[in-house]
Every structure is written in C-alpha cells, then in structure tokens.
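Example 5.3 — Protein THYLAKOID ASSEMBLY 8, chloroplastic
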Amino acid sequence: MASSVPSLNFTFPPLTSSTTNSTRISVRCGPRSNRGPLLKGRILSIEAIQAIQALKRTQRMDPTQIQPHISKTLNRLIKADLIAAFKELLRQDLCELALKVFPAVQLECDVPDLGLYADMILALTRTGLDENVDELIDDLEKVGEIRCDDKELVRLVRALVEGEQVESTVRVYELMKKSGWGTTYGIDEYVAKVLRRGFKRFGKEQMADEVDQQLQRSSQLILGKH
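Solution (predicted structure tokens):
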C-alpha cells in the first residue's frame, strides 16, 4: 500500500550554529522488541527524548496534527538533537514518522547530507516502504548536484544497491556524473566497484562497463602523474 507521506521538498539555507546547551543522559527508548541496538556511546538529550515522545503521541492520537507539531517541536532542537531524534525514530522502525521529520533534518544542512539519505533509504527498504525512495532521489535531483568527494556517498550508493533500487541507483549515478564524478572529482575505487557490481546485478551491463572504463581511465591518469 502506498504511503500517505507528503512530498518532500527541500531548500538548503546556510548552516546556522546554536550555543544552546543541553543536559544529556544515556537512554533506551521503550521495549527492545526487534529494534536495532543503541550504538555504543550514543546518547539522547532530554529535549530529544521529549520530542520523540511528543511526536509518537501525536501520531497515535491525531495524525493530522503531525506536520504542525513537527514545526512547533523540532524548531526548538539544536541540530545534534534533531539528528539524534531522527535516527532514534529509524532505530524504532517508525519510518513513516521519520520520513515526515526528514525535511526538517535536511533544512539544518547547507548541502544534502548523503549519510542521512542512506540511513533513511536503508530503513525504508528494510520495512517495506521503498516506494518512497524515488521521492528522496527526486529531491536530490532538485538540488542539482551532490558532493562526489564525500565519504557518505559510499553509504548512499551501497544503500541503494543493497535495497535493490535499480532506477534510483541509475539516477544517482547520473547525478554523480553531472556533479563532476570522474572529472572535477577523482573516482573513488570502492564507490566504482559497488556501482559496477550493482549494475551487473541489475542487468545493466552497459552501465557497469562504463563505470569500469571510467575507473581504468582514472587509474591511468594517476599512474601517469607518477
């Protein structure tokens, strides 16, 4: 069944900083059930815990008030707490709620955070909500380019390949080339290998060969410089 999550549309204003100090405590939110474990050293502030609880309560009692509540609640959080709350929603497999929070998280970034996109995509494919993945890629394309030298690009590509997101993988690859992958930016060998294997798995032999050729040209240029 298709998700009723509204369309995601991001703009990326300059990143602002906050000097708000938060008291932080270690926490486990709710019963463990089938959730993933808390990451070692991971902590949630009191503000983040309260935001998560308030969002879950609103979702349960009156889902029509989620968007107004997100605007009211999340605007009070500093960036670190906002991201921590978002990741905790993913850990609890509350993906539809996390997807509604995701635009607010990305608005705190001056450029798209590809690592958070990867986290969202992995959670969506894990919980059977992968019909929303293309919508996330739509928003990346609207931005026009991505950071091809960002190590989080590896995570994004792997998330798409592992989630069997064929069309979205192709679209991200085209966006990478548009953003200067292999021209302005050097080709990361690991990213190239993940893409090549993914395209072969998807039956995209021509694209796999193209990636392989790009990697060979890049390697030759590096050797030529030495």
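Remark. Strands lie at 24-25, 44-45.
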